[in-house]
Amino acid sequence: MLIFRRQVKRIAASAIVALLVASCGESKVSQCNRLAEVVNKAQGFMPAFESNIQTFSANAAQVESLGDIKAAANQYVTAVDEVVSDLDALSVELEGTDLDDEQLIGYRDRYIEMVEGFSSALSQASDAMGIVQEVQAEADLPAKIEESQQQTVQAVQLIQELSVQESTIINQVNTYCGAEGAEGAPGEPSETVEPAPETPAAPEEETPETAE
């Protein structure tokens, strides 16, 4: 599974002082930190998502019957649907994040679009696995698995494209906020941005062999 993480380095004390002196209203630093704090909330739900997908992958590799395949598919759909819900909530909170800096507002809006894109692609992956969930007979599995995989490939391709956009946005925000390459001041809490998740393609499940 591909999970992309970027670390936002701490803003140096000298940079903070310079920005505070230059600001006519609320400092850019405080707005940068406010935006980072919201984005960082992805760290709260990402570990559970990763763990669930790892368990799914392990279970999918050991399927022996139609029931096993459907149980693994159920687990995948549940895990993905949960993270989609979390991403949707993150998007709403980002929209409500109060910012005055026009540049930060632009970055925030682009990040919201990216999060919504991830949510949509993950929903597509969930729908693709739902095809397997609905299979009623082992004879139907090969065609349904192929259909599911075709849809999953499309979702993963979109996620990979969004990951590139995400990396660009994060790098631009780091540079604008003065965080890129800066060392943290003593006692200053580190800011870590956990980007939206990248879901793996569903493993190819082997059609269970029926006894002759």
Question: How would you describe this structure to a colleague?
Answer:
- The radius of gyration is 21 Å and the shape is elongated.
- By secondary structure, the chain is mainly alpha-helical.
- The two termini are 36 Å apart.
- It has helices at residues 13-22, 28-39, 42-60, 66-95, 102-133, 141-176.
- It is built from 6 helices and no strands.
- The longest helix is centred in the last third of the chain and has 36 residues, at 141-176.
- Mean pLDDT is 75; it is low at 1-24, 180-190 and 196-203.
- Helix 3 runs antiparallel to helix 4 (66-95).
Strand content: under 5%
Low-confidence stretches: 1-24, 180-190, 196-203
Helix content: 55-70%
Summarize model confidence as the mean pLDDT.
Answer: 75
Give the H and E element order: HHHHHH
Radius of gyration: 21 Å
In short:
The protein is mainly alpha-helical. It contains six helices and no strands.
Descriptive tags:
single chain; 212 residues; mainly alpha; 6 helices; 66% helix; disordered N terminus
Give the helices and strands, then pairings.
Layout: H1 13-22, H2 28-39, H3 42-60, H4 66-95, H5 102-133, H6 141-176
Helix pairs in contact: 3-4, 4-5, 5-6
